[in-house]
Amino acid sequence: MKPLSVEPLAVDLNCDMGESFGAYKIGNDEAILPFITSANIACGYHAGDPMVMQRTVQLALQHKVAVGAHPGLPDLVGFGRREMAVSAAEVYAMVVYQIGALQAIAKAEGAALHHVKPHGALYNMAAVNPQLAQAIAEAVYKVCPEAVLYGLAGSTLIDAGKAVGIRTANEVFADRTYQQDGTLTSRRQPDALITDPNKAVQQVVRMVKENKVKSQQQKDVSIQADTVCIHGDGSHALEFAKFINETLTKENIQLKAV
Questions:
Q1: The predicted structure's pLDDT at residue 166
Q2: Which residue pairs from 79-82 have beta carbons closer than 8 angstroms and sit at least 24 positions apart in sequence?
Q3: Beta bridge partners of residue 48, listed in sequence order
Q4: How far, in whole angstroms, is CA 177 from its chain's centroid?
Q5: How many Å is the Cα radius of gyration of the chain?
Q6: Which residues of 125-138 are buried (b: 16+ CB within 10 A; e: fewer)?
Q7: What is the pTM of this model?
Protein backbone atom coordinates (compact mmCIF):
# COMPACT_ATOMS: atom_id res chain seq x y z
CA MET A 1 0.00 0.00 0.00
CA LYS A 2 1.46 3.34 -1.08
CA PRO A 3 1.92 5.99 1.62
CA LEU A 4 -0.40 8.96 1.35
CA SER A 5 1.26 11.92 -0.33
CA VAL A 6 1.24 15.12 1.68
CA GLU A 7 0.79 18.41 -0.14
CA PRO A 8 3.68 20.73 0.69
CA LEU A 9 2.75 23.95 2.47
CA ALA A 10 2.62 26.90 0.11
CA VAL A 11 1.82 30.58 0.41
CA ASP A 12 1.78 33.63 -1.81
CA LEU A 13 3.99 36.59 -0.87
CA ASN A 14 2.47 39.85 -2.09
CA CYS A 15 3.64 43.45 -1.93
CA ASP A 16 2.01 46.82 -2.68
CA MET A 17 3.86 48.42 -5.57
CA GLY A 18 3.74 51.15 -8.20
CA GLU A 19 3.18 53.79 -5.53
CA SER A 20 5.45 56.45 -7.02
CA PHE A 21 3.73 59.41 -8.65
CA GLY A 22 5.14 61.93 -11.12
CA ALA A 23 8.40 63.21 -9.66
CA TYR A 24 7.84 61.47 -6.32
CA LYS A 25 9.44 58.07 -5.76
CA ILE A 26 8.04 55.70 -3.15
CA GLY A 27 9.37 52.22 -2.48
CA ASN A 28 12.05 50.10 -4.12
CA ASP A 29 9.97 47.98 -6.46
CA GLU A 30 12.69 46.72 -8.79
CA ALA A 31 14.85 45.41 -5.93
CA ILE A 32 11.96 43.79 -4.02
CA LEU A 33 10.29 42.02 -6.97
CA PRO A 34 12.72 39.04 -7.03
CA PHE A 35 11.62 38.08 -3.51
CA ILE A 36 7.82 38.11 -3.92
CA THR A 37 5.27 36.16 -5.97
CA SER A 38 2.54 38.74 -6.61
CA ALA A 39 2.45 42.53 -6.95
CA ASN A 40 -0.47 44.79 -6.05
CA ILE A 41 -0.11 47.75 -8.40
CA ALA A 42 -1.60 51.12 -7.45
CA CYS A 43 -4.10 52.34 -10.02
CA GLY A 44 -3.76 56.13 -9.78
CA TYR A 45 -6.25 57.01 -7.03
CA HIS A 46 -4.23 56.72 -3.82
CA ALA A 47 -0.88 56.47 -5.64
CA GLY A 48 0.66 55.71 -9.00
CA ASP A 49 0.20 57.17 -12.46
CA PRO A 50 -0.04 55.66 -15.98
CA MET A 51 3.73 55.64 -16.58
CA VAL A 52 4.43 54.12 -13.15
CA MET A 53 1.73 51.51 -13.70
CA GLN A 54 3.21 50.57 -17.07
CA ARG A 55 6.74 50.32 -15.71
CA THR A 56 5.65 48.24 -12.72
CA VAL A 57 3.79 45.78 -14.95
CA GLN A 58 6.88 45.47 -17.12
CA LEU A 59 9.06 44.76 -14.08
CA ALA A 60 6.58 42.20 -12.75
CA LEU A 61 6.67 40.38 -16.09
CA GLN A 62 10.47 40.36 -16.07
CA HIS A 63 10.50 38.71 -12.65
CA LYS A 64 7.56 36.36 -13.37
CA VAL A 65 5.51 37.96 -10.60
CA ALA A 66 1.69 37.89 -10.79
CA VAL A 67 0.11 41.24 -11.67
CA GLY A 68 -2.73 42.56 -9.52
CA ALA A 69 -4.78 45.76 -9.37
CA HIS A 70 -4.63 47.74 -6.12
CA PRO A 71 -7.61 50.13 -6.17
CA GLY A 72 -7.95 52.70 -3.40
CA LEU A 73 -9.92 55.74 -2.35
CA PRO A 74 -9.29 58.98 -4.33
CA ASP A 75 -6.94 60.46 -1.74
CA LEU A 76 -3.38 61.05 -2.93
CA VAL A 77 -2.56 63.35 -0.02
CA GLY A 78 -3.63 60.79 2.55
CA PHE A 79 -2.22 57.85 0.57
CA GLY A 80 -5.64 56.23 0.65
CA ARG A 81 -5.35 55.48 4.36
CA ARG A 82 -8.08 57.89 5.53
CA GLU A 83 -11.68 56.76 5.61
CA MET A 84 -14.11 58.62 3.36
CA ALA A 85 -17.91 58.72 3.44
CA VAL A 86 -18.47 56.86 0.16
CA SER A 87 -21.55 54.95 -0.93
CA ALA A 88 -21.57 51.41 -2.28
CA ALA A 89 -22.40 52.80 -5.73
CA GLU A 90 -19.37 55.09 -5.61
CA VAL A 91 -17.11 52.26 -4.50
CA TYR A 92 -18.37 50.03 -7.29
CA ALA A 93 -17.69 52.70 -9.92
CA MET A 94 -14.25 53.66 -8.64
CA VAL A 95 -13.13 50.03 -8.39
CA VAL A 96 -14.40 49.25 -11.90
CA TYR A 97 -12.51 52.31 -13.16
CA GLN A 98 -9.26 51.39 -11.48
CA ILE A 99 -9.34 47.69 -12.38
CA GLY A 100 -10.04 48.68 -15.97
CA ALA A 101 -7.07 51.02 -16.07
CA LEU A 102 -4.58 48.45 -14.79
CA GLN A 103 -6.14 45.69 -16.88
CA ALA A 104 -5.68 47.76 -20.06
CA ILE A 105 -2.03 48.48 -19.28
CA ALA A 106 -1.41 44.83 -18.42
CA LYS A 107 -3.02 43.69 -21.68
CA ALA A 108 -0.91 46.13 -23.69
CA GLU A 109 2.21 44.66 -22.06
CA GLY A 110 1.13 41.06 -22.66
CA ALA A 111 0.19 40.32 -19.06
CA ALA A 112 -3.01 38.93 -17.57
CA LEU A 113 -4.62 40.45 -14.49
CA HIS A 114 -4.19 37.84 -11.76
CA HIS A 115 -5.83 39.46 -8.73
CA VAL A 116 -7.46 42.51 -7.20
CA LYS A 117 -6.63 43.76 -3.72
CA PRO A 118 -8.24 46.92 -2.30
CA HIS A 119 -5.90 49.37 -0.62
CA GLY A 120 -5.71 50.97 2.81
CA ALA A 121 -8.90 52.47 4.18
CA LEU A 122 -11.02 50.96 1.40
CA TYR A 123 -9.66 47.50 2.29
CA ASN A 124 -10.39 47.95 5.99
CA MET A 125 -13.86 49.40 5.39
CA ALA A 126 -14.79 46.51 3.09
CA ALA A 127 -13.53 43.99 5.65
CA VAL A 128 -16.45 44.87 7.94
CA ASN A 129 -19.05 46.63 5.75
CA PRO A 130 -21.20 44.17 3.73
CA GLN A 131 -22.43 46.81 1.26
CA LEU A 132 -18.95 48.02 0.37
CA ALA A 133 -17.65 44.46 0.24
CA GLN A 134 -20.41 43.48 -2.17
CA ALA A 135 -19.68 46.51 -4.35
CA ILE A 136 -16.01 45.54 -4.67
CA ALA A 137 -16.79 41.87 -5.31
CA GLU A 138 -19.30 42.78 -8.02
CA ALA A 139 -16.81 45.15 -9.64
CA VAL A 140 -14.26 42.34 -9.88
CA TYR A 141 -16.89 39.92 -11.17
CA LYS A 142 -18.12 42.31 -13.87
CA VAL A 143 -14.68 43.44 -15.11
CA CYS A 144 -12.39 40.45 -14.58
CA PRO A 145 -14.24 37.41 -13.17
CA GLU A 146 -11.17 35.21 -13.52
CA ALA A 147 -9.20 37.39 -11.09
CA VAL A 148 -8.67 36.40 -7.46
CA LEU A 149 -10.04 38.81 -4.84
CA TYR A 150 -7.55 39.32 -2.01
CA GLY A 151 -9.13 40.30 1.31
CA LEU A 152 -8.46 40.22 5.03
CA ALA A 153 -8.59 36.61 6.19
CA GLY A 154 -12.07 35.60 7.30
CA SER A 155 -13.52 39.03 6.56
CA THR A 156 -16.76 40.26 5.06
CA LEU A 157 -14.90 40.95 1.80
CA ILE A 158 -13.94 37.29 1.48
CA ASP A 159 -17.58 36.31 2.11
CA ALA A 160 -18.76 38.74 -0.57
CA GLY A 161 -16.33 37.36 -3.12
CA LYS A 162 -17.49 33.83 -2.50
CA ALA A 163 -21.14 34.93 -2.75
CA VAL A 164 -20.72 36.37 -6.25
CA GLY A 165 -18.75 33.33 -7.40
CA ILE A 166 -15.19 34.60 -7.79
CA ARG A 167 -12.05 33.08 -6.32
CA THR A 168 -10.80 34.57 -3.07
CA ALA A 169 -7.54 34.57 -1.15
CA ASN A 170 -7.37 35.07 2.61
CA GLU A 171 -4.65 37.61 3.29
CA VAL A 172 -2.53 37.92 6.42
CA PHE A 173 0.00 40.57 7.37
CA ALA A 174 3.59 40.12 8.43
CA ASP A 175 4.09 43.48 10.10
CA ARG A 176 0.67 44.20 11.61
CA THR A 177 -0.84 43.17 14.93
CA TYR A 178 -4.29 41.61 15.27
CA GLN A 179 -7.34 42.09 17.45
CA GLN A 180 -9.38 39.30 19.02
CA ASP A 181 -12.02 39.52 16.26
CA GLY A 182 -9.41 38.91 13.56
CA THR A 183 -9.22 42.53 12.38
CA LEU A 184 -5.99 44.49 12.16
CA THR A 185 -5.07 46.88 14.94
CA SER A 186 -5.78 50.42 13.76
CA ARG A 187 -2.74 52.34 12.52
CA ARG A 188 -3.81 55.10 14.92
CA GLN A 189 -2.78 52.81 17.78
CA PRO A 190 0.89 52.74 18.87
CA ASP A 191 1.00 48.94 18.78
CA ALA A 192 -0.34 48.56 15.23
CA LEU A 193 2.99 47.69 13.63
CA ILE A 194 5.51 44.94 14.36
CA THR A 195 8.94 46.52 13.97
CA ASP A 196 11.04 43.50 14.96
CA PRO A 197 11.61 41.48 11.73
CA ASN A 198 12.10 38.24 13.67
CA LYS A 199 8.73 38.61 15.40
CA ALA A 200 7.06 39.50 12.13
CA VAL A 201 8.40 36.45 10.32
CA GLN A 202 7.63 34.09 13.18
CA GLN A 203 4.06 35.40 13.19
CA VAL A 204 3.81 34.51 9.50
CA VAL A 205 5.32 31.04 9.95
CA ARG A 206 2.80 30.28 12.67
CA MET A 207 -0.11 31.58 10.61
CA VAL A 208 0.89 29.38 7.67
CA LYS A 209 1.78 26.24 9.63
CA GLU A 210 -0.71 26.40 12.51
CA ASN A 211 -3.46 28.67 11.14
CA LYS A 212 -3.24 30.77 14.29
CA VAL A 213 -2.13 34.26 15.31
CA LYS A 214 -1.69 35.77 18.76
CA SER A 215 -3.97 38.79 19.23
CA GLN A 216 -3.11 41.94 21.18
CA GLN A 217 -5.37 40.50 23.88
CA GLN A 218 -2.89 37.58 24.11
CA LYS A 219 -5.34 34.99 22.83
CA ASP A 220 -4.97 32.75 19.80
CA VAL A 221 -7.17 33.59 16.82
CA SER A 222 -7.85 31.07 14.05
CA ILE A 223 -6.71 32.39 10.68
CA GLN A 224 -6.21 31.11 7.14
CA ALA A 225 -3.12 32.32 5.31
CA ASP A 226 -3.38 32.03 1.51
CA THR A 227 -1.31 35.15 0.85
CA VAL A 228 1.02 37.22 3.02
CA CYS A 229 1.33 40.98 2.61
CA ILE A 230 4.62 42.75 3.07
CA HIS A 231 4.97 46.50 2.60
CA GLY A 232 7.39 47.96 0.07
CA ASP A 233 7.50 51.56 1.30
CA GLY A 234 9.40 51.15 4.59
CA SER A 235 13.04 52.07 5.15
CA HIS A 236 13.99 48.38 5.61
CA ALA A 237 11.52 46.93 3.09
CA LEU A 238 14.12 45.26 0.88
CA GLU A 239 15.96 43.64 3.78
CA PHE A 240 12.68 42.34 5.17
CA ALA A 241 11.55 40.98 1.79
CA LYS A 242 14.80 39.00 1.54
CA PHE A 243 14.53 37.82 5.14
CA ILE A 244 10.95 36.57 4.95
CA ASN A 245 11.59 34.88 1.60
CA GLU A 246 14.63 33.04 2.96
CA THR A 247 12.95 32.10 6.26
CA LEU A 248 9.79 30.70 4.66
CA THR A 249 11.91 28.68 2.24
CA LYS A 250 13.96 27.28 5.14
CA GLU A 251 10.70 26.34 6.86
CA ASN A 252 9.80 24.25 3.78
CA ILE A 253 7.01 26.61 2.82
CA GLN A 254 6.78 26.96 -0.96
CA LEU A 255 6.33 30.48 -2.33
CA LYS A 256 3.96 30.78 -5.27
CA ALA A 257 1.11 32.98 -6.46
CA VAL A 258 -2.40 31.95 -5.40
A1: 98
A2: 79/46, 79/47, 79/120, 80/45, 80/46, 80/47, 80/119, 80/120, 80/121, 80/122, 81/46, 81/120, 81/121, 81/187, 82/121
A3: none
A4: 16
A5: 17
A6: bbbebeebbbbbbb
A7: 0.94
